[in-house]
Amino acid sequence: LLPQRFHIVGYARKQLDLEGWRSNILLNLGCRVLDQKDCATKMEEFIERLSYMSGQYDSAADFAKLDAYLEDLEDGQPTGRLFYLAIPPNVFGAAMGSIKASAIAKNAWTRVVVEKPFGRDTESYMELRDQCAEHFQEEQLYRIDHYVGKEVVQNMVVLRFANFIFEQLWCKENIRDMHIIFEENFGTEGRAGYFDQFGIIRDIMQNHLLQVLAYLTMERPKSLHAADINRVKTKLLSEIMPLKARDFVVGQYEGYREEEGVPEGSVTPTFAACVMYINNQQWEGVPFFLTAGKNLHNRKAEVRVRFKKGHSMDFFPGEEVGNEIIIRIQPDEAVSLRVVNKVPGLAKDLAYTSLDLLYKDAFEKESKDIADAYERLILDAIHGEKSLFVHDEQLRISWELFTPALKELESKDSPVRALAEIC
């Protein structure tokens, strides 16, 4: 899928020899299932395209050396340059300034992919945004949220708008509530010092889960072009009611404060649940529950769309939950519909059963080789396709939505802090 002419150059402050760097990459490199026959040859060809340079992020002179090296690789041919910034946010501005001053493509496009965190509140995001805008235009910036690139998340748009039955049911008249759930059965795994600066709300809820909510509830876009999808997602996010601390339940798994890098008495949540409401005609009054947590019993990410019972209770009384669509994002991608059926036999017993679309069965060949979210997104960035990247306006709105509640939760008078001190 990559262009025939490509080269990947690693650039960081650390001094590494080329063979050592390539060896580290080989430890995590593999082939697609369908390419296993020629895997060794493909890996060898790929490794030969890798090189490494050491330099400072804020040094125009170091980036000028990088530019000279890239020009040698390009051999005078028009070649686009994609810079992937997997670096701390406090050096975004310096790195972008150095790229702009010394390393942009001469006769082709230059694009910059930026990894989260995109700030920790409205103020810090706006500062980062201004730093980026000082050097690059919005169409050159690709803010990556890998959750948006997941196969099942992308299918949500198709499920909703390509199936008449679901499109007609997808509104407040029929849907009781929605649950967007993210659970991990492990802790911070050596990242406690980093994680404690942000917490589960900033790390998962403000970005990944909010993007999933947008895909689940946005209006039908005019097309699948990036501008049209961005327009309806931004509109939806702007219609979410402001959040306050009372809309959240937060917690912290036992033993978190004993992990290396966690300050004494930390109140950073490793679990959070919140309820959101959307102030528009389609969703008025429907609660949307977002839940995210680490070190829980299960590892899963899923959406549960629960429908109102209506007249079905006449046949099947006593059940709290009616029909339900379950969209499993990971692991074992699937879409299930919970329906009532008659139990076989002479009696007239009824029971809930599940109509399951398991990706591994329905798409037996394709499911063995589902592209990783990052693969898809990086390929899209190479081709200039922005429909699966997060637009500046969406990030601004999301931070404006979460920042007031975060400040309340983290204030000295917060009941969360008082409880932590008691514990």
- Continuous helix count: 15
Low-pLDDT residue intervals, each spanning 5 or more residues: 418-423
Overall body shape: globular
Q: Strand arrangement, largest sheet?
A: 7-8-9-6-10-11-12-13
Mean pLDDT: 87
Note the beta-strand portion.
15-25%
Major sheet: 8 strands, mixed
The N- and C-terminal alpha carbons lie at a distance of: 54 Å
| Count of beta strands | 13
Give me the Rg, rounded: 24 Å
Helix content estimate: 25-40%
N-to-C order of helices and strands: EHHEHEHEHEHHEHHHEEEEEEEHHHHH
Structural class: alpha/beta
Protein topology:
Elements: E1 8-12, H1 18-26, H2 39-47, E2 50-54, H3 60-74, E3 81-85, H4 92-102, E4 110-115, H5 122-135, E5 141-144, H6 151-161, H7 164-169, E6 175-183, H8 192-195, H9 199-217, H10 226-238, E7 248-251, E8 271-276, E9 288-293, E10 300-307, E11 324-330, E12 334-342, E13 350-358, H11 359-362, H12 364-367, H13 373-383, H14 392-410, H15 415-422
Parallel strand pairs: 1-2, 3-4, 4-5, 6-9
Antiparallel strand pairs: 6-10, 7-8, 8-9, 10-11, 11-12, 12-13
Helix pairs in contact: 3-4, 4-5, 5-14, 9-10, 9-14, 10-14
Structural summary, described in words:
By secondary structure, the protein is of the alpha/beta class. Helices cover 37% and strands 20% of the residues. The chain has 15 helices and 13 strands. The strands form three sheets. It has an eight-stranded mixed sheet. α3 (60-74) crosses α4 (92-102).
